[in-house]
Amino acid sequence: MNKPLITYIIIVIVSFTNDKLHSECNNPSIKVDMVSVLHHFISIYSWFGTFIFGYPEFHLFYVLTIITGWNYFGNCIISEWYNNACKLNKNKNHKDIPYYIMSTITGHEQQSYSYLIYAVVIIDVALILCKYHKSIF
């Protein structure tokens, strides 16, 4: 395995473990845990994928797909399924690494990533511009 993939998997495991330790799920099961693991893989790549793996072009497409899903469905469909299965408020956040970063910055328990995700888009665009137009920056 290569270092970026190992780094990514370790971050996902830490994020999932932390979420599991602080979970408020009222209906834990293997199925719920598997959905949570899936959420962590998607979430960690969404926020940190371009830094871990590079390829900002692919990452930008991925993040724009996530944003489209959020806007179309009105929420993260994986989080909504998880919250329904756990009998939690539909807007309850997973306690993943991005959650703890944002709650530390904002001081709020409930987080909205709607604006922050556009910072990720801007970073990807800047990296793409730097990659193909080195003289711009």
Describe this structure in words.
71% of the residues lie in helices and 0% in strands. It contains 6 helices and no strands. Helix 1 crosses helix 2, helix 2 (30-53) crosses helix 3 and helix 2 packs antiparallel against helix 4 (77-85). The chain has 137 residues and is mainly α. It has one domain (3-14, 29-132). The protein has helices at 3-21, 30-53, 56-73, 77-85, 97-106, 116-132. It is globular and about 50 Å long.
Low-confidence runs (pLDDT<50, min 5 residues)?
A: none
Strand share of the residues? under 5%
Radius of gyration, taken over Cα atoms and rounded to an integer in Å:
16 Å
Number of separate domains? 1
Number of β-strand runs = 0
How would you describe the shape? globular
Taking the alpha carbons of the first and last residues, their distance comes to 33 Å
Query: Count of DSSP helices?
Result: 6
Residue-averaged pLDDT: 85
- Proportion of residues in helical segments: over 70%
Q: Helix- and strand-based class?
A: mainly alpha
List the helices and strands in order: HHHHHH
The major pleated sheet works out as: none
Q: What characteristics describe this protein?
A:
mainly alpha, 0% strand, globular, 137 residues, single chain, 6 helices
